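Fig. S4 source data, part A: sequence.
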Amino acid sequence: MNVRQAVERENARRASGAEDEDSVLQQDAHDKELPPPSAHALASLAKLQNMARSDASTDPADSTKDTRSKEKYHSAHRTKKRRLAKQRAVSERAGPTGVAKRPPKQAALKRIQAAEALTASMASDADVAVSLAADGATTSLVGAVPIPTDYSLAMADVPVAKTAYVAKRDIAADVDKRIYTKEELLAQGFEYVAWNGLTILDKNGRVIAVLVGQPRSENWGSINKDMQAIMELAREAYQAPAKQQDHRRGAFTVATSGVSFGGGQTHVKNMSHSAHNQAVMDALLKQLPVIRVAKFGSRALQLFAPRLHAYYEETMQELCNNDDDLRRNFEDVPFANATFNLGPRCVCIPHNDHLNVAWGMCAITAIGDYNPVVSAHLVLWQYRMVIEFPPASTVLIMSAVITHGNTAIGEGEHRYSFTQYSAGGLFRWVDSGHRTVSSLPRVPAGRVAEEGAERWKRGVEMLSLWDELKEQAAGC
């Protein structure tokens, strides 16, 4: 007997009012000569009957569940409407959001507003021309005073790589990488140098650092205050990742722009930023105080190291002529890169910028509200000097081969800086015919060392002798 037949027999039994299930089934089996139902058939019958009773009734809990589901849906819908209304309000306060799918959050809103403020304060070409003319007319070698040292620029005495394009990293491994006070360093035998337009010489009278100072322009006095405001605004606007806030130079935010090569790059290119950060950098580079400081650093290099300045300029021209996509930070400035150290307490721990061209110089301009006699001195470890470094003043140093940093600043003081430099990899790229070294035929190690020694010799000769500068100053 199958399940269907069992169901039919059961219905017949109920219709006849029979009570004895076994007798009915036995009678039916006798009548039709069929065997009695199996246990499996009886179990299936019970299951079907339960399903039928379930379908015939309605569970009150189901309707309650449906009601609750509807309430949850409408509640979520109302929450979404409130969230969208709040986002629209924030978006309206921020102004147009471009192609962004969502309006900015409060932190992003603050960055956008700071970036807009920087963009609104970009200088006109006319203002730039007037200011630069005044700054250039008051920059000269007058007042430069030499400080002789026993420092040697012989390649065997300087921590440079075999190729001489760059320096060795961490050349002062025995120096604790921390912030020092002026008193600590003087106790270690460092020489204290008051600021006075000094020029530091190596043992052969070659200029290896310059305390350039400031232009004698009448309106240079506002530069420090203006640059502080720009740095603060830029720090608010720039979205810096963690590695640009705490790094081997110290715990302060940095933002860099310019032409780069290294770190696995296959060709020279401008440094890449997000669209927002690129807009911030573009606005920074158009600020009149920034342009004036950058141009002054270039003018200082041209005065104190004219051959080095010409080499930088020739290299930048060749790079840009070979690739139309490359952009200089500033017109007629030969430095390939510029870094804004955005503070607010920019104090560098001892380090050397080993990837800068080894025999070159970088221009550093200090900004802030600190007392230069008490704090924030420039420390040059190989020269054993602690040097006063007043706000809005510029120095030229060989940052690749000299360990440098700053002394601590006082509580409540602020310090920022602006640096310009060129990476050694750029010069190597040009010398290699605008190709990577790995794409060139392999050169024996002995030949690399010979070429490096010759390159270093030519590089050192780009630095000025003090006697040359004296003759130049006498002819002014």
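Fig. S4 source data, part B ends here. The longest helix spans residues 60-94.
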